[in-house]
Amino acid sequence: MSYVHRVSPTWYKKPMIPNYISLSFGQVASAGSLIFLSGLLGLYLRLKITKSIYIAGLRTAFQLFGMGFLLQWIFKTQSLVLVLAMMVAMTGVAAWTSTERSARPFPGIFFNSVLGIGLSSWVLLTFASTLIFRISTWSDPQYVIPLLGMILGNSLNGISLAVERFTEELFSKRDQVEADLCLGATSWEAARPSFITAIRTGTLPIINSMTVAGVVSLPGMMTGQLLAGVNPLEAVKYQIVIMFLIATSTLLGTLIVALLGYRKLFNSWHQFEYWKVGQKS
């Protein structure tokens, strides 16, 4: 079995791709001027988004630079403990982000999100690293951390949409759900329409992205590799793999979270415990 060649710890200091264009901090700052002008435009038009734009821009810069320095250190040490700690932290933040703005939370929603995002993303990461990229060890973070980050970052959006839609559907159609239960339907039969709607809502963004990939848009990973000078066909192969991983992880994650939510909101007597909706766990 062939394994991925281990990259030298100093690879990040001197890129080996001939057409790679290294950006200075000044060049990055010039892109930041666009955010400044966007804020001024919002202020002039009284859109009340200037503060949000500036805060988002500052958070983006500080968070990404912080992540860059952290990854630089982790890539240099290549410690399995550090890599796993980083991956666990990323998973926890993704789970928290997917539920923190839920309009109708319920007890256990964060735990459900951890299970949904954690199981789906880590299973797909294991599949990709073992059978596709054939990475010899997870202590080499060049692949596992970026792969997990892309899977988490995209699947959490779908999971967040699915959770939001599932609880909203059940709560807004409470009369219909309880009428079905009174007429002899099981809790699954009463909740199934809301469940299907939630899954379709959660998977719609990635399905749309796959539908127009290469026709309307060039996905982020492919674009980054092209800018770095990678052969276009190699960039395409990587992007196809990533999008298939994201799509599968999103579907599995939304299924797990919605099923766990269903089990939480319906009891063994086939009663809809609607009073749980709207409470923080």
Give a written overview of the molecule.
- This protein is an all-alpha fold and 281 residues long.
- It has 2 domains: 1-77; 79-276, no CATH class.
- The chain contains 9 helices and no strands.
- It has helices at residues 25-44, 50-77, 80-100, 109-132, 141-172, 174-182, 187-212, 220-227, 232-265.
- The longest helix has 34 residues, at 232-265.
- The chain is globular and about 70 Å long.
- The N and C termini lie far apart (47 Å).
- The model is unreliable at 1-15 (pLDDT under 50).
Summarize the structure.
With 281 residues, this protein is mostly helical.
Mean pLDDT: 85
- Low-confidence stretches are 1-15
Order of helix and strand elements from N to C terminus: HHHHHHHHH
Structural domain count: 2
Distance between the ends:
47 Å
Strand content: under 5%
The chain-level structural class is mainly alpha
List its salient traits.
globular, disordered N terminus, single chain, about 280 residues, mainly alpha, about 0% strand, about 70% helix, 9 helices
What does the secondary structure layout of this molecule look like, with pairings?
Elements: H1 25-44, H2 50-77, H3 80-100, H4 109-132, H5 141-172, H6 174-182, H7 187-212, H8 220-227, H9 232-265
